[in-house]
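Ops channel
N.P.: pipeline sanity check, posting one input/output pair.
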């Protein structure tokens, strides 16, 4: 198949629309559904991310994409009982499926943003992964293959319209890529930078020069995630999964704050008060996600007000106070942070420190590098200057 006609482009008024190859055949097969323009943009960007994560770490990898940026990305490490509970997968047996663990982590990082996501899997989609996907609100999935059981499960989703794409894992695009804007064609070499190279972490200007193997893995995950995130972007990673991604902000400190706030929310969802909220029976996962998000925010009264809390809880919970939140967030440690370009000021490091960051990889090259290094040294943070910028648009 050389081309595929689409219903419309980014918006219904943008017609005609298609994907096509200038030379050769399309490296994909639509096994179910009718993916749209944005679906394919998410599919192809997310596939590159998980393929590269798998190559760099040797572990099955997954990503949850929304509007051409990842909401989450992860490798297939086992989940603790706490993570199973906060990711709402404690009722599914995924322990023997690394790819299911990877998707549970990718989806669980920022469940609010992942609502209606497009999924990428580095490995064959198995039954356990398909059962996870079936219960979530999602637009589609791309993977190199599907087991028969998995495909049957996915074909039943969304009344038979769920988008399932199979991609040829051996496909290699041309080394030069083009795109158009305002009728003008842009051309550039593809970004083929190898982010698994240990040499990326050799230039360490900070007093602390210690990166554990786990830290290097998490920094690689952060940088590869950023490579496919709309810039400016910053990514916090812990234990093999992104826990906060700040994408598309004009100011880097806003990226750092946005991603740090998401990392804090991920950590606060593990607070005992949140873990033990007295939910009413059969509450929808989306309502539970939204309620948790409000409960741990400064707007908690929006879900604890009289006449409102009864819709969600069997009894009125005690609020999570600002002091309790601050104390709990302070317990989060060993977080890795990547940035797609240099940090211009030490304020980014100050914000990162509040969310438990202990290791950083960034391009370096700011006129205020001395201020950034000094701030890292104040907190004992180990930082590498990679010399690599990872803008993506």
């Amino acid at each position: 198949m050389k081309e595929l006609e689409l219903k419309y482009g980014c918006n219904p008024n943008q017609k005609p629309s298609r994907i096509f190859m200038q030379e050769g055949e399309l490296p994909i097969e639509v096994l179910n559904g009718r993916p749209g323009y944005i679906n394919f943009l998410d599919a192809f960007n997310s596939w590159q991310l998980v393929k590269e994560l798998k190559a760099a770490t040797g572990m099955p990898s997954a990503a949850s994409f929304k509007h051409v940026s990842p909401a989450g990305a992860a490798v297939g490490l086992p989940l603790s009982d706490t993570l199973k509970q906060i990711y709402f997968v404690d009722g599914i047996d995924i322990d023997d499926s690394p790819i299911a663990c990877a998707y549970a982590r990718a989806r669980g990082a920022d469940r609010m943003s992942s609502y209606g996501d497009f999924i990428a899997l580095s490995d064959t989609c198995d039954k356990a992964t398909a059962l996870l996907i079936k219960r979530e609100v999602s637009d589609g999935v791309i993977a190199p293959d599907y087991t028969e059981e998995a495909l049957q499960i996915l074909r039943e989703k969304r009344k038979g319209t769920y988008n399932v794409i199979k991609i040829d894992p051996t496909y290699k695009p041309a080394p030069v890529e083009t795109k158009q804007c305002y009728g003008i064609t842009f051309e550039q070499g593809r970004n083929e930078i190898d982010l698994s190279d240990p040499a990326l972490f050799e230039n360490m200007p900070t007093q602390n020069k210690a990166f554990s193997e786990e830290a290097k893995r998490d920094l690689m995950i952060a940088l590869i995630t950023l490579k496919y995130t709309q810039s400016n972007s910053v990514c916090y990673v812990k234990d093999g999964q992104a826990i906060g991604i700040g994408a598309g902000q004009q100011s880097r400190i806003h990226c750092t704050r946005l991603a740090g706030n998401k990392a804090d929310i991920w950590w606060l969802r593990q607070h005992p008060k949140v873990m033990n909220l007295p939910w009413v029976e059969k509450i929808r996962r989306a309502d539970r996600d939204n309620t948790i998000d409000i409960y741990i925010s400064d707007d908690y009264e929006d879900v604890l007000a009289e006449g409102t809390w009864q819709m969600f809880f069997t009894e009125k919970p005690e609020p999570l106070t600002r002091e309790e939140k601050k104390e709990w967030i302070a317990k989060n440690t060993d977080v890795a942070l990547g940035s797609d370009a240099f940090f211009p000021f030490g304020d980014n490091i100050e914000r990162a420190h509040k969310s438990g960051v202990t290791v950083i990889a960034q391009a370096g090259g700011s006129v205020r590098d001395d201020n950034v290094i000094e701030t890292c040294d104040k907190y004992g943070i180990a930082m590498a200057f990679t010399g690599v910028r990872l803008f993506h648009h």
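N.P.: looks fine end to end. DSSP finds 14 helices and 15 strands in the chain.
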